[in-house]
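Dear all,

This email documents one entry for the complex benchmark we are building for the journal club exercise. For each entry we list the sequence lines for every component of the assembly. Then comes the predicted three-dimensional structure of the complex as a token string, followed by one or two observations. Please use this as the template for your own entries, and keep the labels exactly as they appear.
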Amino acid sequence: MSSGSENIKFHHALNVNDDLCTGCTHCMTVCPTQAIRITGGKARIREERCVDCGLCYKSCPVSAIFVEQDDFNDIFKFSVRVALIPSVLFGQFESRIPVAAIYQAIKNIGFTHVLEVENLCGTISEGYDRFTVKNPSVRPAISPYCPAIVRLIQVKFPSLTGNIIRVKPPTDSAAAYLRKKFAEQGGDPGAVGLFYVTPCASKIASVKSPVGETASLINGVINMDFLFNRITKALREMNSDQEWKDRDPHPSPENILWSLTRGESAGRKGRTLAVDGIRNVSEFLEQLEESEQSDLDFLELRACDESCAGGILICRNRFLAVERLNERAEAAAGESRESGTESTGIKEPYNHNDYRLGPIEPRSMVKLDDNITEAIRKMDKVEQLLRVLPGIDCGACGAPTCRALAEDIVQGHGTVSHCIFVQEWEIRSGRLSLEEADRINSSVWGEMRNRRSQKG
Amino acid sequence: MTLNYSISGGDFASAGNASSAVKSILKQLNIDNGTIKRVVISLYEAEVNVAAHADNGTITVDIDNVSVKMVICDSGPGIPDIELAMKEGFSTASAEVREMGFGAGMGLPNIKRNCDLLNIKSIPGEGTELNIEILLNQAKPTER
């Protein structure tokens, strides 16, 4: 990218398996940040644009897009093995399977401790309160919860990065809490392994290259679909008649629902709004960026439809998962009403040292150039090109839209001859040879798919 | 570079389309957020003015490395007393327009506050031409 002055590597959890990818363009068309191009017949993800939302993963008809994960056996390198579990995991199982049995199953497959990360949501809420009091002019305050949204704001709405609340999300807060607790006990910190079970790709990316943190406190990430299979197997091996009990702290009823839509906003004071689905979020942020002032106090923004219940590594139907979590929260609320006791959740006061997130830097991907004069020149060129290109966004050039191709061209990637309509005209008028056209088409679609090459 | 848009009188639903499109382009030109906000606010107010008062109008936006110049021309009733129109709270908007939440008499004053140069030419019974210029990288806070 000639426009980017930064040369930072971004870790992405989404990868393309070239053996499976057919270059069908499905992923390229759905990508909300236009991060995908087809080159040599394969999908290529541009890492500075990708926000790890996972829409490409969902759209791929041949499962060529995969989510990397760490080797499960890595957990056995540690004598203390903690599974950091998001509550949404319990939504993967039918109501008849008790939560305590699932806790036990997780321990049976090799973990020594289980901590539901939502246990820290009380602490995080305190952090949110503090941020809103200390920053009265920052409105609306935007939740830092969803890593795909944080990245979306960085690349597409850089003017709003300052609105993101600088408090670590539950997983990172839970990791910070545990590191502190284990340090207080005085053991060897190297013996403690923290493993996060993730419902989505963006949380993996945020663990591997955290935004607003110098280094992650988490040792590895395990995909939820993988763990679901292991737990299911372990549950089959357990005695179904036995009544399982766990002594682990459980999140409060409201915090069990934190990862679902309105899970955060429900507990915030003032005028709040919850938006889920990355396209809905994008549309809303466009509007927010234009408004002169906002009387909104808090925005909960989530990339997935139905928030984390709709994560790409979730196995069960998201609506059924939401139903189960609601049932669990209601049951927990009922229990504490009956017993007259408060929920068992961790009571950890918020403090800056452990739970504050560093600054979230803007890194605009939309600017054509750092230099305004040069950017204007490029923009003029884009407008000229758009008068030549057909405007049907067919994707045959390997870019998602005609505008995306025009922008690629001014940045030195591709030529106007990549457009098959322009190419046809250039061949007819003798401006382009068939051989040259073949070469261009092969560069986009690969030798195999380019029919003229096959005949030759 | 030059951009052209049109607005129809009474079409409040579409008022904001031009300012939104200009915003996207300014972001691509790496123009700072403060300047973008001032352009968006000024142009949006001008769009609403055309929708509220005129039959139709055109918008021309010129961008170079010094400033963003916007010309908003409408065919409408014109402004008989420009000085009065510049006063906060003064409005000739119809009851119908006010019911929609517009017409509070803040439009022109708000444009004035957000731009570096404002020139209004108006012929009663014919129409109004607004010339707005916003210099790039001029720190003029929009917050009050």
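Observations: Chain A has three domains: 9-66, 72-355, 368-456. Residues 72-355 of chain A form one domain.
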